[in-house]
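can u pls check wat happens w/ serine
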Amino acid sequence: MKNILVIGSTGQIGSELTMKLRREIPGSTVVAGYIPGAEPKGELLKSGPSEVADVRDGQGLADIVARYDIDTVYNLAALLSAVAERKPLMAWDIQMNGLINILEVARERRCAVFTPSSIGSFGPSTPHKGTPQDTIQRPRSMYGVTKVATELLSDYYFFKYGVDTRAVRFPGLISHVTLPGGGTTDYAVEIFYSAVCGEEFVCPIAAGTFMDMMYMPDALKAAVDIMQADPSRLVHRNAFNVASMSFDPEIISAAIRKRIPSLKMRYEIDPVRQAIADSWPDSMDDSCARAEWDWKPSYDLDAMVDDMIANLRRKLL
Ligand code: SER
């Protein structure tokens, strides 16, 4: 991995992943791909090249890949689960037509491709506790449908054309840098902003609803490590379960209240998000990632909560 294109570089994952790759991959050129209206700013803009990279424009992608001699594409363009339920056709267009555009360019130019999957790729008939790597995937959300199809299509391009596709199934991601936009797990980020700003938090997800969550530094590490893993050790490719913590709203609010006792929370359940959350795993088994590329998270719940609060206090107060 040397010349890298990050598509969706101003989004929740991309904004931090682009900077990490620029810092940590020696001699790399990391192109920040964005869509008009979501231009890179500040350090992201200043620290390297940026280009309009709309996944729906295959020729545009091919031009960037050729111009920068790109060898690795991080495809982070997606509508998250709750938004995708409101705009299913747009989600399909971005997640599926966009993906095949990228895979075609990758096939022609021999690029590696990372397109994340998600806990959203599972559904109501999936075993919810200790969800295995290889199990039933029959999601009922459009987001989930596109994520399962992403896994299958990415594997297809590997087996049929030898395109080096690899990915992980991300849990809900928690970060103090860029807010997520319209996911089911967003509450686990928003509760921190309410706590630090002294506002009441209105929780859209019911008590007792467990989901896998992960602190962003671990998610970024997973995204980089999987692309650098020794391919001869990989039995799986698209996509690996990765896990670090699982909680429900009561557990996360109690962990925050230990540090910010004034946090007030009440429930106002969003039926769309709740139905999605109920269909997702409570906790995934990530033993294949641990065995095949030495995946190991650094943050547990307490370490994440400490770091989130310290960083948000610096940012917001
Ligand atoms: N965080 C995503 C969502 O909630 C799941 O991958 O949609």
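The pocket of serine is lined by residues 80-81, 118-120, 143, 170, 172, 183-185 (CB under 6 Å).
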